[in-house]
Amino acid sequence: MTDLTQIDIALNNSAYPIIIHPDLFDLSAIRSQLGGRKIMIVSNDTVAPLYLETVSDLFVDNKVFNCVLEDGEQYKNTQSWQVIIDALANHQFNRSDLLVSLGGGVIGDMTGFAAASWMRGIDFIQIPTTLLAQIDASVGGKTGINHSKGKNLIGAFHQPKAVIINVSSLNTLPVREFNAGIGEAIKYGGINQAGFFHWLSEHVDDIKIKKPGILMQLISQCCQFKADVVEQDETEQGVRALLNLGHTFGHAIETATNFKYLHGEAVGLGMVMAAELSAQLGYCEAGIRKMLENLLQAFDLPIMLDSNVTANTLLTLMKSDKKVINDQHRLILMKRLGGSFIAEGVKDSEILPALQSCLSG
Ligand SMILES: NC(=O)c1ccc[n+]([C@@H]2O[C@H](COP(=O)([O-])OP(=O)(O)OC[C@H]3O[C@@H](n4cnc5c(N)ncnc54)[C@H](O)[C@@H]3O)[C@@H](O)[C@H]2O)c1
Ligand SMILES: [Zn+2]
Predict the structure, then answer these.
(1) Residue 326: what pLDDT?
(2) Out of 26, 45, 130, 230, which residue is the most buried by the measure of CB atoms under 10 Å away?
(3) Per-residue pLDDT tens for 136-158?
(4) Atom of ligand 1 nearest to the CA of 140
(5) How many CA atoms lie within 13 A of 8 on its CB side?
(6) From the CB of 189, is ligand 1 less than 6 Å away?
(7) Is the shortest distance between the CB of 265 and ligand 1 below 6 Å?
(8) Is 361 among the domain residues?
C-alpha cells in the first residue's frame, strides 16, 4: 500500500505521469527511462541548499551536473537561459541527455525553455517545490522567459517527461509564497470548478496549517483540473485560454509594480478585476466579486492594488499582453463562479472603470 497519487496526462505526441508523494521525491515511475543519461539539475541559490543534494542522490546510475542560478523573477531572462545553455554545451549534452528543474515556476519555466531550445528539444523532468508550481506551472508544457516588454514573451510549448512532486517540500516555503499558490488554486474554482471553490472555503484552516492529507487532495485535484484542460487543447487554440483567468490583468500588475506583487497575488487581484468587469458588462452577479474577495482574504491575499499605478498604465500594459488581437481585448470573464468564458472585443472604456474600482491609491 503506497500513499502516493499518480495522475497521467495523455497528449497527442506525449503522455507523462504526475507523481504526488507526501514526503519523498519519488522517481520510481520513470526510473526505467533514466538509463545512463547525463543529467543537468537546474535550481537556484535558495532551493539548492535545501534539496539539491537529496535530489542529485536519486540519480544513482547517472552522471549528474548542477546549474544553480540566482533566485528571482527578475532573473527569468535571456542571461539565465544562456547560463543553462552554456552549461549544457560545456558538458556536451546531446539529444539523449536530460534536464531536471528543481524549484518554483521561475526555474521550471526557464529549464523547460532551455530543454525546448537545446538541440531543438531534449527531455526534461519537472520537480516543482512551490505550491504554485506544483498545482499549475509544472504541468502542461508552457515554458519560457521574460522580455523587458513583458512576461513570458519568449517561449515554447515543450512537455516534460514527468512531474515529481514532494508535498513536504512545501514545509520550507515562506508563507507568503504558499498563499500566492492558493491564488492559482482559487483560479480553478473561478474557471470551471465551483465545487472546488467551496471545498477551499471549507478547508481554509487545514490548508493554512498544511495538513498533509488536505494538501495531497488540493494538489491532486488541481493537477487533474489542469491535465483535463491541457488534454483537450495542448497549444491553447481554444479552451486552454480559460486557464488565463485573472492573468491579463495579473501580468499588467506584475509589470507595473515591478514584481512587488507575487504572480499568484497578482492573479488573485486580476480575478477580482475580471469579476468586476463581468458584473459591469452584465455577464454575472455583483456578488461573485465579494465571494472571491472573501476567499482571497482568508489566505491573506490582496484584493485592492496598493500602489500608485494608474488604471491607464495597467490598460497600456494589458495591450502588450499576448492575448490582444487587433487592438481588441480578449479576456476571460465569468458568467458565474465556475462559469468562465472567452470574451472577445472588450473595449478600453469598459475595462477602465473595473480597473479603477480595484485601486486603493
Ligand atoms: N508554465 C506555466 O504554465 C506557468 C503557470 C503559472 C506560473 N508560471 C510562472 O511561474 C513563475 C512563478 O512561480 P513561483 O510562484 O513558483 O515563483 P518562484 O519560482 O519565484 O518561487 C518563489 C520563491 O520560493 C522559493 N522557493 C521555491 N521552493 C522553495 C521551497 N520548497 N522552500 C523554500 N523556498 C522555496 C524560490 O526560490 C523563490 O524565492 C512565474 O514566472 C510565472 O510566470 C508558469
Ligand atoms: Zn499563473
Answers:
(1) 64
(2) 130
(3) 999 999 999 999 877 899 999 99
(4) 3
(5) 5
(6) no
(7) no
(8) no
CATH number of domain containing 331: 1.20.1090.10
Residue 350 lies in a domain: yes
332-356 b/e (C-beta count within 10 Å ≥ 16 → b): bbbeebbbbbebeebeeeebbebbe
Same domain (yes/no): 93, 142 = yes
Please say which residue of 111, 140, 172 terminates a domain: 172
Distance 137 CA to ligand 2 centre (A): 7
Rounded-to-5 percentages of helix, strand, coil across the chain: 50, 20, 30
CA of 28 from ligand 1 middle (Å) equals 25
Give the end of a domain, one of 137, 156, 172: 172
Q: How many structural domains is the chain composed of? A: 2
Give Dmax over CA atoms of the chain in angstroms: 60
Side chain identity at 321, as an amino acid letter?
Answer: D
Residue 320: is its pLDDT beyond 80? no
Give start and end residues of each alpha helix (H) in the chain: 31-34, 53-58, 78-90, 105-117, 131-132, 175-192, 194-202, 204-208, 212-232, 247-256, 263-280, 287-298, 311-319, 348-356
Q: In 3-state terms, what secondary structure has residue 157?
A: strand
Do 53 and 17 share a domain, yes or no? yes
Q: Is residue 219 part of a domain?
A: yes
pTM higher than the cut 0.70:
yes
Spacing, Cα 151 to ligand 2 middle (Å): 11
Ligand whose nearest atom lies closest to the CA of 332: 2
Q: What is the pLDDT of residue 360?
A: 87
Residues whose CB falls within 8 Å of the CB of residue 82, separated by 6 or more in sequence, listed in order: none
Query: Confidence class of residue 247 from pLDDT cuts 50, 70 and 90?
Result: very high
pLDDT of residue 2: 60
> Where in the sequence numbering do the catalytic residues fall?
120, 142, 184, 226, 236, 240, 244, 247, 251, 263
Mutating to test ligand 1, I would choose from 171, 177, 229 the residue with most ligand atoms within 8 A of its C-beta, which is 177
Full residue range of the structural domain in which residue 143 is found: 5-172
